# Entry
Amino acid sequence: AATDRLRFRVAAAFASGDSAVSVNGQPAAAGGTTFTVGGSGPVLFGANGDARLDGHLRRVRYYPDRVADADLARLTADLGFADDFDDGQIGPRWREAVWTVKCAWCYTNGTEVAVDETGGRLVISFADRDGANGLVTLDTYDFTGAVMTAELVTPPLASADIEVGIAVTFPGGEETVSLFAYQGNLLGQTNTLALGWQTVFTQPFSAVNHRFLSLGHEPGSDRFVFRTSADGVNWTTRATEPVFGPIVDSALLIYGNSYNVAAGSTPDAVFDNFATNAARN
# Structure
């Protein structure tokens, strides 16, 4: 994979006698003030007279109003986000994960279980039944050179047939890389259309040493990186795996699946402190 590319997010706004532009989150700079808006004409992308862009346009958005300067900076600074689940409601960056295209691989043979923010945490409540749910990002993200992390505060019991963790899904939601706790073990897996589910590594799960989970991409080697941490600061690499397809349109997922659950065996799965530095598309 190429590692020398430059990525720019540019937002420009104009009205009669007024314009401004922001690049990559920088404060908006004033543009020309001598032009008049009116009539109609072509809108050119990647061209300025005889000059031409040497690159690619990923996405274009149009707003029918003169966007405020402060909003221009915010629009171009959207490189990752964090959620500490302290506001008591599912944030606008998320949607529930089950039954969605972005989570096409989620277990759907049972009942959709409850997921909510409560007590400053994200709680997936299985309520002694088979099912699945979690949160998946509403938008897609470019996972190139990026990392996502989450704190697994309450893992599933080793005796329970419950899988709880984090994942990155790729276009269509059927190809996935995941890191999760399941029946007393920590597992890293990939799921591809060509090979199906493949286990990258497995080891005994530690509620202390594996409290923080991390999936990342190392652009130099073009590999996925599975990491864990006891404190969210000092990380241990558990395994790496070659990237198997495009990762520029990825959805990020916190999830829990329960299978063949017996009564009394399913305490809530509890997460906290999600973060990623991936760029939103």
Notes: The chain is about 5% helix and 45% strand. The longest helix spans residues 69-76. The chain has a mean pLDDT of 81.
